[in-house]
Task: structure prediction
Amino acid sequence: MDRHYLHPLFNPRSLVVFAGDPEAEAPTREARTLRQALAASGFAGSVTWLDIAMTGTLSDLANSRADLALIALSPDDSAAALEIVGRIRCRAALVLTTGMPAARCQELHETARRHGVNLLGPNSLGLQRPAFKLNASALGPLAAPGPLALVSQSGALTAAMLDWARQHGVGFSTVVSLGPNTAVELPQVLDYLAADASTQSILVYMEGIRHARRFMSTLRAAAHAKPVVVMKSGRQATGSKVALTHSASIVGADDVFDAALRRAGVVRVRQFTQLFSAAQCLASRFRPVGDRLAIVTNGGGPAVLAADWADTLAIKVAGVTDLGEDADGPAYVQAMQAAVADRATDGVLLIHAPKAGGDAEAVARAAAEAFVPNAKPVIGCWMGEATVRSAREVLVGRQMPVFRTPEAAVDAFHNIASFYRNQRLLQQTPPPLTGLAEPDTEGARLLIESVLAERRRVLTEMESKALLAAFHIPVTRTMLARSANEAMLIASQLGYPVALKIDSPDIAHKSDVQGVILDVHNATQVRDRYNEMLQAVARAQPTARINGITVQPMAGRGPEGQRGREVYVGLTTDEAFGPVITFGAGGTMIELIADRAMELPPLNQFLARQLIERSRAAEMLGEWRGGPAADMQALEQLLLRVSEMVCALPQLREMDINPVIVDANGAVAVDARIVVDKTSQAPGSYNHLAILPYPSGLEREYPLGPQAGGGVYTVRPIHPDDAEMLQALVRGLSAESRYFRFASVMPELPERLLARFTLIDYDREMALVAIVRDPPAAGEDADAGHERIIGVSRIVTNPDGASCEFSLVVADELKGQGIGSRLMQSIMEVARSKGLSEIMGLILTNNGPMLKLMHSLDFRIGPFPEDPDFRIATRLL
Result:
């Protein structure tokens, strides 16, 4: 409940402005623009104009202290002004410049860091807070107030968006133009906006990220609290030219970014006008459960346009109701209500094309009166311009999203369906290890180290399969033959038919050099094919080192002669987001087919199934060509095992398991190629992952005291699924306990805080919950007991990266049982493991029990200078 550390930046009560003497000519173009913006906006707080050449004592400077400093000077003068800002103890500053060199920007960052100033800029076009009448920007006139927040890494595009919004009546809670060299970056702004009560939806335009882990964790937390729509430029369609595996060569950076946004629970759009339409739809809080769209229309042509575009976006058309050209309001209402009630539809599109002599506004008025917001999505499309403008205004007044073209309306429904589908992905926070049999992680590490010790990066097929086997991934039995006679002996032991494959560290794709021969049925063929393969490889790649030829039994032919399906599972490492798991149709045509569904690790069963279903290969995994359906559970388990490998082995860079033969009896890896590299990362730190796994290793059990009824309670990290239990804990607290914890008498947590408290970034914060299982009620099964949270301890890392702030709450009926002490000791241990050096927290002066507990844990208790109602408790870790 405490103020966010960026509060002085976005909610300043007072400003100091370095833009030259306001009575003289402006020293820079930015200074002139800033002066005009401040004068026109009518900011109600105090504004003090300062000059870098001002004289006086430090006490005189201190009297100029303000929440936010605005600097619009030359680069040299900006540095001097920022030094003054630090001395007068401003907590936030904005440097409004363009074209400042990166080296000079870094100098300003260091000055701000030294003084503890949160710096927006340099090379930023500033920010706007319309409700506070603050226009600290070079973005043009102050935007209208509204519920949307806009954060952009491009100043020019921000100005264009604001101009478009002014023409279309769109208002904003916040507008931030970050620029390329800002110290306050996108994740920090998202973190603030996620908790900002005046912001209902967040729009983001971005061009790149610096820290994938920080970006993903903050984006996930923001998207859990409110709708987030992202537009990103710089799409890249092709993979790396130096990729050593098929999967790495067909995956582009933009594909990975799409996967990351899906996992973050946000919607991506391609045009900035779609940002606003998507936000409009998501703000309606529709609750779809699928992607089946019913179309109600008064003309066949518009319905065809809508259906065609729906097919392009993989939206299913659940049915088309053509009411005819003369359809009136009651006809639309009847059709709309029937479609909403139909369980075979997830949304409804109303299309009205104006007709001579028709009354588009009357139709709209009837539909608006029957429209029920916050239910199944209903989207309007009143085509045309002048004759239907008033009709669209009627629908907008009832909060029905309405568009000019069928394609735009279908886009809107696609955004709604995508948002709620991605929200299901957002809820998934898997641990690094599944519940399957424990892998031989240490053996796998030793194998990789031996390869790297030989100054190799590419594992042989046998080494790759040994690595897979360490994680219990089924592989075909493979043996290396160094002569034709040895190959014949091995083949006779394995049983015919067999496959022969070249084994060379220098050959990336065996098929390209005729290094794979299948269906070899007898010893003579083994001998002849062995010699022929060596000759073909020597011609195709004469400098390649040859270890020999591997022999393995043919896989994938069922008892009735039906071949299994060939799929691939891969790994590629993205420059920004780290490892990415890929899945699709496999075999020798993998690059031509380019079937590439992907997901960021770690995976759980839900994510593995979603990954499979997003691929085109999913269509052939059911009953196919007269054969039974593939064993989906075996395929999911294989993906879970790959996820375990990726989490446990940061040395992995690329991987192809291709083909994986899957049929009704299971899944087996027939061939594999793995690329590794050195890492300085400590095992178990997971620094290579963009999404930190759920820290299941922190789970502990402790005994409950006899006064609490005995038994045990579990202390573990909080999980998104704990929201309902956490709300029950807060509702069950006494008014005094709620006030002591939140400095508020609110009866329950607001939805935005509940989301913020349960889906957390385990990297920069931690919340541990104490959970007990109550016995089953009379008549219930013995295993039907209900879990409930009886206490929560929490730390959030401060912006300095060295200290953290704590909070603690215990259920009233269990106070004095040692639970609070145990939770505090556990959360302090977590803080130590994160490398933090100090823990601190604010405690109300009249909260005697909490002050006593902190004394017992060797905290120092002192006054809090900013508010006499609080004491501050601190302890070195």
About this structure: Confidence is low (pLDDT under 50) at residues 237-241. The domain at 696-876 is CATH 3.40.630.30 (Aminopeptidase). The chain is about 35% helix and 25% strand.
